[in-house]
Design goal:
single chain, 346 residues, alpha/beta, Rossmann fold, 2 domains, 17 strands, globular, binds flavin-adenine dinucleotide
Length: 346
Amino acid sequence: MEIDRTKGEVWVFAEQEDGVLSDVPRELLGKGRELADTLGVKLAAVLMGAGVEPLSKELFEAGADKVHLVDDPALKVFRSKAYRHAFVELIKECGPQIVIFGATHMGRDLAPAVASQLGCGLTADCTELQIGEFTDKRGACQGAEPKVVPGVLQQIRPAFGGNIIATIVNPYNWPQMATVREGVMKPLERMPGRTGELVKHDSKLDGVEIPVEVLEIVRRHSSINLKGSRIIVAGGAGVGSKENFKLLHDLADALGGAVGGSRAAVDLGYCEHERQIGQTGVTVRPALFISCGISGAVQHLAGMQDSAKIIAINTDKDAPVFKIAHYGIVGDLNVVIPKMIKAIKG
Ligand SMILES: Cc1cc2nc3c(=O)[nH]c(=O)nc-3n(C[C@H](O)[C@H](O)[C@H](O)COP(=O)(O)OP(=O)(O)OC[C@H]3O[C@@H](n4cnc5c(N)ncnc54)[C@H](O)[C@@H]3O)c2cc1C
């Protein structure tokens, strides 16, 4: 029987590691809720792993109507082929119309593998998703009338180095698939006690040869947690040196915040790559963002412009960062920051 894909669910890949859900499924369920409600279909999370059924409760509380659970010892640790095979079989069985993954290491590995196996499109690193129309003008040269396709997933992302915002659609080969940057979508408020439908599926991995065996997992834990910080002090090329970045750490310490950087600051070796904020770094929206010696290029703003309050310090009164700052200080950060620290400590 042919599946009517327009009635298909909206799916979110519920990435987990060692039985702990990552933040990104919650963020994607926030956006997924909006998409599913617009289409009038169910929002489902796809949960894969070994012994992970208890996580379904968290997914219902985060907004999922349904959880598709594939529980198999072969899925205990992420291995591309095993996850891809199980995911593709699940899509063939259930016919979702939209599948969204986090643009994490796992999502960036799994989503293209699934899309290529199914021969459907995939838009990577989306910063916005919405439901809209698509006007199909193929055949216009032969005099055919344009055909309007409603209910299409509009996959929005920066393109050409962030100089344009592209809207990409895939009206032909469904499911419509996208990866979404971490930290970009807002999770819903947790709804304690909310429940939904749990559907258990076979992994269909019997007889499938998995060419990778995981012998050992070595983890490097990072003490940098920009996404979880309510206050961020970020520095750019204008800070001038790695040594001078200490000034930013002093300000962040005085405020109980974390230190971030622009790509230029990272490229110049002033701070670690994990601190990079922007299109190719992390996306943050703290309560307070203090920008120091950062010009405000679009690629940087993409990662911080939703901060609740932005204070910018720059010697150039025409720096683009002042266009989005709530408070601007035209001055030398070497003079301004010590005064701020003194005032805070006082
Ligand atoms: C595909 C692509 C992806 C990118 N991704 C990112 C990204 O994720 N994040 C990111 O940040 N960038 C990204 N970039 C780079 C981005 O375009 C800019 O080059 C970068 O953000 C500039 O960093 P900056 O503002 O620190 O440096 P600059 O543009 O050099 O600005 C330095 C600023 O410091 C000011 N200044 C100098 N001295 C002082 C002082 N003593 N006190 C106060 N102010 C001072 C100057 O007036 C100037 O405005 C990307 C670019 C591309 C093409």
